[in-house]
Write a structure and sequence with these properties.
With 113 residues, this protein is mainly β. It is built from no helices and eleven strands. The strands form two sheets. Strands 2, 4, 5, 6, 9, 10 and 11 form a seven-stranded mixed beta sheet that branches. A four-stranded antiparallel beta sheet has the order 1-3-8-7, with no helix packed on it. Strand 4 and strand 5 form a beta hairpin. It is globular.
C-alpha cells in the first residue's frame, strides 16, 4: 500500500521559516518524481515544486527563491524548506508521487501577522 505522510506544518509569522517532511512507503521512492502541492482556503490546487528522480527541480513563480525542495532517497523522505514565509503562503500542503497518483493527508501551514 502506497503511503505518504506529511509533517512539519504549523503557525509562523511573516518572514519565518518551516521545513515540511513527507515520508513515503509502499513504492520505490527513488524511482519517482515527487511534488508539493498546496491549497489555500477557498482556492484551487497550486503546484509548489517538483523534484524528479535525478534531482532536477521546478518551482512555482510565487515561491521561487524562497522555497527549496529536496529528497533523501535513503530515508524515503521528501522535504520542503520554506523561508521568508508570507501570509498568502497559508494553505494545506500535500506531497504527491508523480506517476503513481498518490497524495498524503496534508499538513497545515498558517502565516499570520
Amino acid at each position: 500500500e502506497v503511503q505518504l505522510v506529511e509533517s512539519g506544518g504549523g503557525l509562523v509569522q511573516p518572514g519565518g521559516s518551516l521545513r515540511l517532511s513527507c515520508v513515503a512507503s509502499g513504492f520505490t521512492f527513488s524511482n519517482y518524481a515527487m511534488s508539493w502541492v498546496r491549497q489555500a482556503p477557498g482556492k484551487g490546487l497550486e503546484l509548489v515544486s517538483v523534484i524528479n528522480n535525478v534531482y532536477v527541480t521546478i518551482y512555482g513563480d510565487s515561491v521561487q527563491g524562497r522555497f527549496t525542495i529536496s529528497r533523501d532517497n535513503a530515508k524515503n523522505t521528501l522535504y520542503l524548506q520554506m523561508n521568508n514565509l508570507k501570509p498568502n503562503d497559508t494553505a494545506v500542503y500535500y506531497c504527491a508521487s508523480c506517476g503513481i497518483g498518490s497524495w498524503g493527508q496534508g499538513t497545515q501551514v498558517t502565516v499570520y501577522s
